[in-house]
Amino acid sequence: MEFTIIKNTGGHKEIDFGNGRSTQGFYQLAQKLESILSITYHKKNDNFNTLTWNYSYHGVPFILHHHWDSGTTIQLQSKSPTEQEELILDDIAHALLEFK
Known about the structure:
globular, 6-stranded antiparallel sheet, TATA-Binding Protein, 6 strands
């Protein structure tokens, strides 16, 4: 699974899967995350060109986000995440690297 860890405009980490992922690819990724991380999505917004699904991992709220133009990302829900929350994001990236 290919991705990069980037800094968003607020200077916080995100996992970026690139803009080559289709809506179908988003749903496949969401299913893989459920399996790999043992998460459950608790809020799903599926709009015309944007998909936003919320979940928690180790008590930290995240957003799996897809926009038809900018691609798919995993973002921390907090606009001012703590260092600990960003370390949990790193844990997700590590789990995804181990999944082949």
